[in-house]
Amino acid sequence: MHELFSTRNNHLIDPTLAIWGWEIPVYLFIGGLVAGFMIIAGYFTFRGHHKHSDFSNFYLPHLSLVLLSLGMFALFLDLEHKLYVWRLYLAFEVTSPMSWGAWILILVFPTLLVNALVSIPKPFRNRIPIFDRISAFIAERPMLAKNIGVFNMIVGAVLGMYTGILLSSLGARPLWSSSMLWVLFLTSGLSSAAALVHLISTDKTERVLLAKADNGFLIFELLVFVLFFIGLITSTQAHRHAATLLLTGPYAAAFWVFVILLGIVVPLMIQLLAVNQKIKHTAIAPIMVIAGGIALRFVIVYAGQASHWTRMAGN
Amino acid sequence: MTTLSRRKFLKISGATVAAASAVAAAGRSVSSAIATTNVERGDRTVATYCDICFWKCGAIAHVRDGKLWKVEGNPLDPLSNGRLCPRGTGGVGAAFDTDRLRAPLIRRRDRGEDEWVEVTWDEAMTYIAERMQKIKSSYGPESVALFSHGIGGNFFKHTIKAFGSPNISAPSFAQCRGPRDVGFRLTFGEDVSSPERTDIRNAQCLVLIGSHLGENMHNTQVQEFADAVGNGASIIVVDPRYSIAASKAKYYLPIKPGTDLALILAWMNVIVAEKLYDAEYVAMYGFGFEPFAASIAPYTPEWAYPETGIEPALIRATAREMARYRPATLIHPGRHATWYGDDAQRSRAIALLNALMGSWGRKGGFYAPVSMDVPAYPTPPYPTPSKLKVDNPDHKYPFAHETITTGIREATITGKPYPIKGWFVYATNLLHALPNEQETIRAMQNLDLLVVIDVIPSEIAGWADVVLPESIYLERHDELNVEWFREPFVALRQPVVESPNDQKPNWWMAKTLAEKLGLGAYYPWKNAEEYLSTRITNAGMSWEQLKKDGIIRGEKRPIFFDEGVPAEFPTPTGKIEFFSVQLQKAGFDPVPMYKRPEGGPPGSFRLLYGRSPVHSFSRTQNNPVLMDMVDENMVWVNADVADRNGWKTGDWVVLRNQDGVVSNRIKVLATERIRPDCVYMVHGFGHTAKHLRRALGRGASDSQLITRYAVDPLMGGTAMNVNFVTIEATEVAHG
Amino acid sequence: MARLAMVIDTVRCVGCMDCIVACKTENQTPEGFNRDWIAYDTQGKFPTLHQEIRSERCNQCSEPPCVDCCPTGASHVHEYGGVVLVEKTMCIGCKACIASCPYDARYVHPEGYVDKCTFCIHRVEKGMDPACVSVCPTHCMHFGDLEDPLSNVSKLLASRKHHTLIPQAGTEPHVYYLT
Ligand SMILES: Nc1nc2c(c(=O)[nH]1)N[C@H]1C(S)=C(S)[C@@H](COP(=O)(O)OP(=O)(O)OC[C@H]3O[C@@H](n4cnc5c(=O)[nH]c(N)nc54)[C@H](O)[C@@H]3O)O[C@H]1N2
Ligand SMILES: Nc1nc2c(c(=O)[nH]1)N[C@H]1C(S)=C(S)[C@@H](COP(=O)(O)OP(=O)(O)OC[C@H]3O[C@@H](n4cnc5c(=O)[nH]c(N)nc54)[C@H](O)[C@@H]3O)O[C@H]1N2
Ligand code: SF4
Ligand code: SF4
Ligand code: SF4
Ligand code: SF4
Ligand code: SF4
Ligand SMILES: [Mo]
Q1: Which residues of B90-178 form beta strands (DSSP E)?
Q2: Shared domain check, A299 and A241
């Protein structure tokens, strides 16, 4: 029998850590989604897709800009000292993923904009001559476009990884201290992004391609989950307890139902059938994938806060 | 339960108390509530002494920019050695309490409903004086009684005595240390007194029977306890609950509640049978050892085992352990001894066990306290009351040497031996301090005058006709502390900051009231400073030094027999009375005999209670600093019992006692640290006074559940560990 | 260079919380928040129990993840004694440091910045002990410089059995518990 009674009763820390509410998971989800967009859009730019369709190369970066701004706003809402937010840009702290993140976000915006310049739709170009000139300039230099695509993919990948590293660098929370977390978040970001593009893209090739890709991402994500849990379970007792929070503990229902079943397995089956033309493509599967991506961030952020070195699950 | 409360619960209503402040905004620093008007800058300190309990530790209060900041121990003070207990450190919170009483209040009784009017001090005093005179002319001055706890009551005692009443009482006797002091008096001829004359620091074997040092935070004792633990003293703890002290013990004896006397008798049996006692000491100082030895002969460890649940081998081992270290073996006399009704005899058994160890008057045992000689301020002699004290008619309790609170209460209810019509209640929350609150309420129904002097709108204030708001201890002068202790010293309480509103110090109230009553001659001094400085100067000390240092220490003097203190025992035989003829004559056991305590209804748990280190009785639950440490009590339930019943730590439950009284909701603490046959909670929570906004409804009140009490036949103490409760789950919304 | 540390004797500690009250009044921590706290750690089966009582606070780690993760530099290591501090005028309240501390030693001050035990550096730099150390009625708390082999804390650690909290988290805590 082991009884631990603590007199500390600090708001947001006791009985379990609750410093981060909805803002952080929303921000992490959007970060992952935008990362996915950037990789997808970058890929299409790289492949010269912008010549046929301006959705992924023009509208997607713009959508990304809007979404990312929303995500950053959520992050901003989470700050306890909002008026001091500019402090983030007075320092670059090499050891702080949060600081890296702040600067990465700064990099993301121009990167997205440059990608958008690759294929500015006709109506805009006709109206604003400078756009036309820029477009022409890039069109004349295929290598430049390719490089822009690659650069978007790289920055996107960094952004997606960072959303995971942000948490996994916080070693005090055993659930997060897994080297698989960034892979998980990146994969999930890609799959959500693919699902969303599949859902809203105006271009048929993109849609079909992304449905297929998404199935790949989802299968890979399941694999990452397996590795994630194996890693935790074979680590210290605290990590094992952290894993049980999701597997059998208080977060198990949310995890198994919303993240795994409805977020991955069911849409995967639907999309496999659809890709093999057994059924028609509908909005259902991508919506489920996106919801699953959101659920994943919530579950990981909340369960992670509940995981602790000494305050074990169920104690 | 409310049938008796004709006067409904107090509404010291916001409408009439103009200055009622807004609820403290969350998150604000607890001290910023006190905004002072002066523009003082910088830090200053004032030496004074603490009043969060009756230990009276020397303190240094710090004021920063005119605002009270913190209180620390006074390094010159031998009680605190420069370190206050948590309650003393958090004492500043009393000043930051936004619910404090602010101005005198009079109940508007003729208006029917409970309602209060704020009045001037003059109106309040005139009102009180008139009623007192009326009681005096109809019933005699003896019909006004004073309940008072702590040194702050001294001037009120003076006024009431000058008025002509002998009926002055404190809960510290019949609800606290009375049985212990009687048991020791009957044995050694002297009290253990307060601060206890125990030399814990030097004890090599320390036996704690329920004394839960570490939770009971009487400062010097805890400091010395830590020293003893640090020195590797052998600690033996007897408690149904694994107390903090138990966690420091070499031997922990998880006794069945109420059977301590059986254990002590068995210990003595072993020590006598195995001739482990200090034979020389006993021969030299003892009286009646042979009949004593014969009397305890049947009480073997084997006999005690089924009574106490303590294995015979463990009883023997601990008895031998005690003998090994004698005379530096201290069986602590306890303090709050009113447990089961056999308390004076149990305390006497503890005294006898100490006598066998030869620890009285010896290093590591009990020292002979000394004090400074500070003459009283000369005042006229008090009038001789024409009636005897009301509390103990016909010496029903022959060994009560102090006034019994519950005796005065009884007389107030019955009118016998004569009626009591007026109560002054100074700094004692009688509804929490006395057992069976309904009896207190019934007594109060019979009064023509009930004056409560308090600092916050406590439960007892809710029943008053007149509420007098007192300045807190950091805002006033008080009587000198001329303590009986290891070494002589005198300490001063003096104001650190001004009272924020219209609060007044007790000396001013008592003096003003005396003047209104035409007793001004008893107060020949102008103010407290004149009174105190005169006493100090007359004692040949420097008033300026005392004001500066807060404490003046005297020369160390011998405090042990070895150091030259004469081994005197002011008992009838002049010896340590192993056999008590006076007890025998009065019809009691001359040597303690064991009687099994009564059990409770099946399925119920005995209700035990004790202290939280950060609270004093019922007086600190509205203190913002201390409430930030522990803001509710929990009911301790044995983990297996809790498991079987599906109660988990943190679950809300209510307790129902044997008489059907149901407590406020309280959280369960399911723990291995208690026996399965009892439950435990900290005393002082479960406040019902509406204007104690921090305290209201936090935790449950043990006092409310203590409807039964056993009366000690020797001295009238009210034993309170005789109540039983069942536990009922309740939904979170309750309370 | 000094390396400040606290050594707490759990044999003497009675869990009275005086250290917490003293911190509260000394440092004026807001209502509802404390920089230190008591852990009552009990093992066994009634009545054969063992209890360790610990006064806990920020461990002033030598490898402080809270400093590493801070994006603004508000969390920093003080030039004297290795004490970890928060500069409140630089803190944006992102709470990464709270999440990174294995001891949950930090909290969000209602004014928006993160607060924690400072080892009472304002007192220590004046030659005084921290408030909690100097109030402890059982004298179970000791404070000093581990670099100085003659300091009380060095001597205690050299002569008594001790442990730190969650050493496996790798933060190198500097609050030691004597057993
Ligand atoms: N159920 C139960 N009953 C008990 C006990 C128990 O443990 N359980 N313990 C018993 C013991 S050991 C004792 S000693 C007694 C203690 O009994 P009391 O001394 O009556 O203790 P409190 O209940 O704290 O009541 C003190 C009152 O004084 C007020 N007060 C505080 N400071 C001041 C001040 O400066 N001036 C004035 N005028 N008033 C002030 C407080 O607001 C409060 O209303 O209780 C006894 N009764
Ligand atoms: N923090 C703090 N300290 C205080 C006070 C305070 O209010 N707050 N009040 C002071 C005053 S006036 C007093 S009188 C003292 C009171 O403190 P003490 O005299 O030390 O203790 P009690 O209140 O008698 O007893 C409480 C302890 O007795 C145990 N107990 C209960 N029933 C039995 C039994 O049948 N047998 C045995 N062996 N143990 C039993 C309980 O589990 C608990 O541990 O505290 C003083 N110190
Ligand atoms: S023991 Fe504590 S509360 Fe009592 S007088 Fe001393 S410091 Fe004050
Ligand atoms: S003040 Fe000392 S004895 Fe009390 S809890 Fe703190 S460390 Fe322990
Ligand atoms: S205990 Fe926590 S807050 Fe303190 S230095 Fe270590 S990691 Fe940082
Ligand atoms: S909350 Fe403040 S101190 Fe903590 S990491 Fe963020 S900026 Fe740094
Ligand atoms: S060292 Fe100072 S800040 Fe830290 S817990 Fe002790 S009193 Fe509080
Ligand atoms: Mo008491």
Answers
A1: 105-107, 116-118, 144-148, 168-169
A2: yes
Q: Which CATH class is domain B105-173+390-473+502-549?
A: alpha beta
Q: How far is the CA of B705 from the centre of ligand 2 (A)?
A: 17
What is the CATH number for A6?
A: 1.20.1630.10
User: CATH number for the B175-367+571-585 domain, one of 3.40.50.1100, 3.40.50.2300, 3.40.190.10, 3.40.228.10?
Assistant: 3.40.228.10
Residue A230 confidence (pLDDT) above 60: yes
- Nearest chain C residue to A168 by CA: give it: C100
Which atom of ligand 7 sits closest to the CA of residue C116?
Answer: 3
Instruction: Report the alpha-carbon distance of residue C67 to residue A291 in Å, rounded.
Output: 35
Chain A residues close to C90, C-beta within 8 Å? 84, 87
- Tens digit of pLDDT for each residue in B564-623? 999 999 999 999 999 999 999 999 999 999 999 999 999 999 999 999 999 999 999 999
Could you say which of A169, A188, A221 is where a domain stops? A169
Compare CB distances from A96 to C45, C68, C89 and report the shortest one's residue: C68
* Cβ–Cβ below 8 Å for B673 and A3: yes
Distance from CA of B32 to the nearest CA of C (A): 9
Q: Is the shortest distance between the CB of B468 and ligand 1 below 6 Å?
A: no
Q: Is residue B295 lining ligand 3, measured as CB closer than 6 Å?
A: no
Query: Which CATH superfamily hosts domain B9-99+474-501?
Result: ADC-like domains (2.20.25.90)
> DSSP assignment of A235-296, as one string?
S-HHHHHHHHHHHTSTTHHHIIIIIIIIIIIHHHHHHHHHHTTSS---SHHHHHHHHHHHHH
Tens digit of each residue's pLDDT (9 = 90 or more) over A135-186: 888 888 889 999 999 999 999 999 999 999 999 999 899 999 999 999 999 9
User: Which ligand 5 atom sits closest to the C-alpha of C116?
Assistant: 3
CATH architecture label of B605-731: Beta Barrel (2.40)
Could you give the ipTM of this predicted complex? 0.94
- Over residues B224-280, the pLDDT tens digits come to 999 999 999 999 999 999 999 999 999 999 999 999 999 999 999 999 999 999 999
Tell me the residue type at B477.
H
Categorize the per-residue pLDDT at B712 as very low, low, confident or very high, splitting at 50, 70 and 90: very high
The number of distinct structural domains making up chain A is 2
Residue A272 buriedness (CB in 10 A; 0-12 / 13-18 / 19+): middle
Pocket test for ligand 3, best of B57, B72, B220 (most atoms within 8 A of CB): B57
| Pairing mode of beta strands B724-729, B605-610 | antiparallel
Q: Which residues line ligand 6 (CB under 6 A)?
A: C 69-72, 74-75, 86, 91-97, 114
Q: Ligand 5, from C171, C172, C174, C175: best to mutate by most atoms within 8 Å of Cβ? A: C171
Give the end-to-end CA distance of chain C in Å, rounded to a whole number. 28
* pLDDT band, very low/low/confident/very high, at A58 (cuts 50, 70, 90): confident
Q: Is B176 in the pocket of ligand 2 (CB under 6 A)?
A: yes
The Cα B271–Cα B320 span in angstroms is 7
pLDDT at residue B34 is higher than 70: no
Asked if B680 and B608 touch (Cβ cutoff 8 Å), the reply is: yes
**Neighboring chain C residues of A4 at a CB cutoff of 8 Å:** 39-42
Q: Are strands B329-331 and B205-209 parallel, antiparallel or unpaired?
A: parallel
Q: Is the pLDDT of residue A222 over 60?
A: yes
Distance from the alpha carbon of residue C17 to the mean position of ligand 4, in angstroms? 6
Domains and their CATH numbers in chain C: 4-178 (3.30.70.20)
Assess whether the previous peptide bond of C110 is cis (omega < 30° from 0): no
Contact A8 C104 (CB under 8 A): yes
Give percent above pLDDT 70 in chain B: 93
Our CA-based measurement puts residue A165 at a distance from the nearest CA of chain C, in whole angstroms, of: 11
Measured distance CA(B244)–CA(C15) in Å, rounded: 8
